[in-house]
Amino acid sequence: MSRPAPGALRDLARLFLKVGTLGVGGPAAHIALMEDEVVRRRGWMTRERFLDLLGATNLIPGPNSTEMAIHVGHERAGARGLVVAGVSFILPAFLIVLACAWAYTRYGTLPVAEGLLRGVKPVIIAIVLQALWSLGRAAARTRGVAAVGLLSLAAAAAGVHELVVIFGTGALVAVLAWARSGTGRGRANAIAALPLGAAALASTTAGAAPFGLSSLFLVFLKIGSVLFGSGYVLLAFLRADLVVRRGWLTESQLLDAVAVGQVTPGPVFTTATFVGYVLGGLGGAVVATVGIFLPAFVFVALSGPLVPRIRRSPVAGAFLDGVNVASIALMTFVTAQLARAAIVDVWTAAITLASAVLLLRFRVSPAWLVPAGGLLGLARPHWPAL
């Protein structure tokens, strides 16, 4: 690759610090901002090239909008641009979430803070339900894929490890696609072996373990390495690893972390920053953030030359279809579990229902609903528990 243009790194830093600071609304909003800045305003690349890079982000695990920033940086200024763009996009959210985590650990048990969070949590459940509705319709491309998704949901409810659910479902859909193509059995068997690899990886991270920065880093490194789909799928992994297996967080703390990740700008994956700070202070915040985002930098750097061939492969496409529908199944199961911690009385049930209607029917922005939920939590009447 040719040498970057003079000032390219500085321009990348300025752009992605701006996008990371203003980018409220999730990956779709982030990518729209990037397209406006990179294609329309600066002319750094054509819209066709931008769409190619966007398609590439769907083929690798990790946060899509962060990977898109990394792709743009790599296109603009090579390896150094890759790092500068990615770090600049993540840094504002890291600092904002860090401040929120500090305030949470210091003041989170005050009555006012508890009231705010009581109203925010049911809004978060409604937001995730909205994501499930839109993503689920996109993921269930055919009746067959939808049926496999139901099997994935049953497996998650039965306690099967989330990595086995995701990779096993992807492998199953890929094998079915390969069988329909009438090609050789050997490669299909190789694809079918993927769940075994996932099970082996799961066995290295399952079970209770004492808290430490190294174990915290490995948990988030694993999540960043295998998480496909929406950032909301992060819920499933965080709950399985940190609440169920290790007992480091409570259901309520996890919902608080997700709420902060939702209302702050930048990538939703900075939820890891909040969790890390709650568990291990500043060191925990840094370790968790580096762990969950590091794979994105590596995958973007390695996947570029392979993307055209991967995109032309029907089996790879089928595998991704299976991964996506399994991710939706995991989200559905985990949302049902978290709703039990968020919807505790008639008042919080009413907030959830009203939020869902406003999101789905009237498309009100979550940026308005979350603070409104907090105010309603403060005004909560003494209604009976569910």
Describe the structure using short key phrases.
386 residues, mainly alpha, 2 domains, 17 helices, 0% strand, globular
Task: Give an account of the 3D structure.
This protein is mainly alpha-helical and 386 residues long. It folds into two domains: 8-89, no CATH class; 135-341, no CATH class. It has helices spanning 8-22, 27-41, 47-57, 64-107, 111-139, 143-157, 162-181, 185-192, 194-205, 213-226, 234-245, 251-263, 271-303, 307-311, 314-342, 346-360, 366-378. Helix 6 (143-157) crosses helix 15 and helix 7 packs antiparallel against helix 9 (194-205). The longest helix is centred in the N-terminal third of the chain and has 44 residues, at 64-107. The N and C termini lie far apart (62 Å).
SSE diagram, text form:
Blueprint lengths: L7 H15 L4 H15 L5 H11 L6 H44 L3 H29 L3 H15 L4 H20 L3 H8 L1 H12 L7 H14 L7 H12 L5 H13 L7 H33 L3 H5 L2 H29 L3 H15 L5 H13 L8
Summarize the structure.
With 386 residues, the chain is mainly α.
